[in-house]
């Protein structure tokens, strides 16, 4: 048996197409162009790749894209002032501050200074609380992308055993909330989890969000289970630079029912969901009907 490969790149292209149609409608019917501002502090080469790719795709779907690149030495107040200006800019509907921030900046304070309605990452405590209580919120892009692929593959997720490996605020915890919202029985595993292989073997759905190259081998996977690989790890093998996930792809694909590849799985969906959230935020800000199927 060999797993169905869930093509995140193709799925993301469809989501962007839907986003593009909504952008056109907003422009033609209401004269509104959704705008996304991305703030990058410091010069992390990997972050610059994502920021460039986000900017390019934002323009491709017809939205306005603004990038603010600040030096690594930027002071806290300077960053807060920029966020304040973006919060008050009527042409900006979504604000993303690329994480991680340099150590001298207070990440929680910075994120919580973004207006919740413009928090397209869904990291503000208000959005976290709304999601946790099942209320309308901004949903974090990576978990939202994973959920869309899972729903498309399975239809209903009700009653499935889901194991999320990783408990970060940006991936693991919101992923678990979304799976719970879709009536999965959810286990969150982390670095202190005992007998991780046994825990993972019970899962119908495994979401790996750890940041350890190929740490999940195929013999942890229940035959037929779905593996969603969030990990983005840059490694060097046989003298070549390579991008690998947190799952050992070949051995997992041999037993899984379905699997997302790296690259070409969760990553492209993250960016597509960022664009979707920006359109959603723009519609909400203007009291207009929200796009269907682009939120959780
Ligand atoms: N594709 C995409 O769009 C995105 C990909 N990523 C990638 O996903 C991965 C995870 O990101 P992020 O959540 O931010 O990472 P964090 O480093 O914030 O969290 C990693 C989590 O993994 C857990 N962990 C570490 N080692 C082990 C272990 N040996 N066994 C079990 N659990 C372990 C940690 O546990 P503990 O809490 O106990 O320390 C922690 O909860 C990274 O590779 C990142 O690059 C991230 C965002 C978007
Ligand atoms: N505030 C904030 N929000 C984020 O959503 C956020 C962040 N900070 N910091 C960093 C992580 C990481 N992340 C990725 C997005 C897209 C790809 C992606 O498109 N990856 C491609 C490959 C890209 C490549 O080749 O490097 C793929 O998987 O196919 C990966 C990783 C968003 N993050």
Verbal overview:
- Its EC number is 1.5.1.5, 3.5.4.9.
- Homodimer.
- Belongs to the tetrahydrofolate dehydrogenase/cyclohydrolase family.
- Keywords: Amino-acid biosynthesis, Histidine biosynthesis, Hydrolase, Methionine biosynthesis, Multifunctional enzyme, NADP, One-carbon metabolism, Oxidoreductase, Purine biosynthesis.
- Pathway: One-carbon metabolism; tetrahydrofolate interconversion.
- There is one protein chain.
- With 296 residues, this protein is α/β, with parallel strands linked by helices.
- The chain folds into 2 domains: 30-116, Leucine Dehydrogenase, chain A, domain 1 (Rossmann fold), CATH 3.40.50.10860; 141-266, Rossmann fold (3-Layer(aba) Sandwich), CATH 3.40.50.720.
- Helix content is 41%, strand content 17%.
- It has 10 helices and 11 strands.
- The chain has helices at 8-30, 45-60, 76-87, 107-111, 125-132, 141-154, 172-181, 196-201, 249-255, 266-285; strands at 4-5, 35-41, 64-70, 94-97, 161-165, 185-189, 205-208, 226-229, 233-237, 240-244, 258-259.
- The chain has a 6-stranded parallel β-sheet, sandwiched between helices. It has a 3-stranded parallel β-sheet with strand order 3-2-4, sandwiched between helices. A two-stranded antiparallel ribbon has the order 9-10.
- Helix 7 links the parallel strand 5 and strand 6.
- It is globular, with a radius of gyration of 19 Å.
- 45% of the residues are buried.
- The model has no long low-confidence stretch (mean pLDDT 97).
- NADPH dihydro-nicotinamide-adenine-dinucleotide phosphate is lined by residues 142, 165-168, 170-172, 189-193, 196, 209-212, 230-233, 266-267, 270.
């Amino acid at each position: 048996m060999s797993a169905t490969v869930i093509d995140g790149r193709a799925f993301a292209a469809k989501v962007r197409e839907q986003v593009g149609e909504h952008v056109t409608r907003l422009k033609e019917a209401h004269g509104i162009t959704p705008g996304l501002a991305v703030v990058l502090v410091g010069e992390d080469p990997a972050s610059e790749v994502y920021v460039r790719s986000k900017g390019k795709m934002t323009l491709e779907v017809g939205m306005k894209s603004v990038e603010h690149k600040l030096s690594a030495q930027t002071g806290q107040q300077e960053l807060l002032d920029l966020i304040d200006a973006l919060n008050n800019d009527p042409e900006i509907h979504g604000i993303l501050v690329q994480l991680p921030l340099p150590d001298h900046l207070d990440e929680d304070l910075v994120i919580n200074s973004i207006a919740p309605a413009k928090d397209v990452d869904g990291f503000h405590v208000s959005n976290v609380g709304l999601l946790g209580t099942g209320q309308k919120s901004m949903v974090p892009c990576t978990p939202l992308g994973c959920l869309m692929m899972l729903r498309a593959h399975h239809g209903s997720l009700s009653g499935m055993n889901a194991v999320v490996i990783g408990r970060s605020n940006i991936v693991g915890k919101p992923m678990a909330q979304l799976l719970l919202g879709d009536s999965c029985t959810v286990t969150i595993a982390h670095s202190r989890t005992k007998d991780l292989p046994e825990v993972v073997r019970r899962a119908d759905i495994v979401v790996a969000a750890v940041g350890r190259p190929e740490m999940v081998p195929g013999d942890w996977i229940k035959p037929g289970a779905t593996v969603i690989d969030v990990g983005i790890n840059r490694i060097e093998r046989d003298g070549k630079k390579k991008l690998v996930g947190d799952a050992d792809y070949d051995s997992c694909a041999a037993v899984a029912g379905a699997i997302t590849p790296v690259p070409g799985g969760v990553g492209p969906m993250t960016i597509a969901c960022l664009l979707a959230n920006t359109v959603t935020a723009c519609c909400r800000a203007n009291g207009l009907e929200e796009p269907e199927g682009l939120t959780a």
